[in-house]
Amino acid sequence: MADNDPLASALSGLNNAESVGHLDHTVSPASNTIGSVLEVLYDFGYIGGFQFVDDGKAGRFEVELKGAINDCGPVKPRYSAGADGFEKWEKRFLPARDYGTLVVTTSHGVMSHYQAREEGIGGQVIAYVY
């Protein structure tokens, strides 16, 4: 059976693996969006690293976990936010101000809401992590 939302499945798998104390997790199937979200998680220190493994099909990501994720998940529907409109979504999805990050897809690529605010661009909120 095909996944309806691979990003939601990937984040749910990471969250579950972290909660039971695993040191690594395999995210399958791989996609560019999932890779970009994992890169943001890596940049902010939530995961130790990740590697793409080509298995002849869609591929997979081998993710090294650090035990730093309390909760993560997709944002559905994918809300649009302007450069100055991220505070509304921070209040909704993050437990406290400046605690955690929203992952945003913009015309300049996938980045955190901190980077998008700094660059003065808006986008769609696709995930959160803290």
Task: Tell me what you see in this structure.
This protein is an alpha+beta fold. The protein contains four helices and seven strands; from the N terminus they run αβαβββαββαβ. The protein has a four-stranded antiparallel sheet with strand order 4-7-5-6. Strands 1-3-2 form a three-stranded antiparallel sheet, with helices on one face. The radius of gyration is 14 Å and the shape is globular. It starts with 5 loop residues before the first helix and ends with a strand. The model has no long low-confidence stretch (mean pLDDT 95).
Short description:
The chain is of the alpha+beta class. It has helices at 6-19, 32-43, 86-93, 113-119, and strands at residues 24-27, 47-53, 60-65, 72-81, 101-106, 109-112, 123-129. It starts with 5 loop residues before the first helix and ends with a strand.
